[in-house]
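Hello Y.,

Per our agreement to keep a running log of every chain we model this quarter, I'm adding this entry. I've kept the format consistent with earlier entries: sequence first, then predicted structure.
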Amino acid sequence: MTLTTTVTWDELIAQYDAERAEYADARAEIDAVATEEYGEEWREQNVPQDPDLVPDDRMDLYVYQLQAAQLDNSIQSCDNRQDVLRTIREHYGAGDFEIKMLSGQETMDIETELRMFAEREGVEMDAVEAKRHGDMVDAAVVDAPDGIPSDDGDPTPSECPDPLVKSLWEVVNRFTTTGSVDFQSGGRGATAARSPTGDTSAPPTPSDAPSPTSDATDE
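Predicted structure for the entry above:
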């Protein structure tokens, strides 16, 4: 018996709400602590790209500013992912996605094909990962909105823009590995924040070693 579940556009968009809330909570915590220590001055200083240019007596302030900038980038990344999904929905039309839980055999077949693809094409891991997303989504999505491309009646969402493929893959992967799509899971509340690279870490303190600010990588 194949297990299936229905996923709406709103749920695809809302799956990033919890992650965004974590970033926002951590950002608010930094704002409160830094404002108490430095007043409004901490917001008015430009963040140097090179920490070696920061005087020793300004290093704590620099760390607050750097971590705040990183969290701002992460919040913007979540907003961008949600906005692009809304745009994609307008193009492909309303309707729900029905996904199935992939069997062990189906997952193994996909991984075998990926190894053959990598060996045959001599491609980097980024290309293999993108193909994994598309193959899993095509295998798992059994019904989709009318505007989604199809092959002999079978939806092929891998032909859709990458943000939708990634969003569907996250749901498929969660459903296949946990049996749940639980769109609001994965948070430790206001006491945790994810870095722009996706790792989860405690809110920063001035004693944390600074690192260069990086832009979020989500398209």
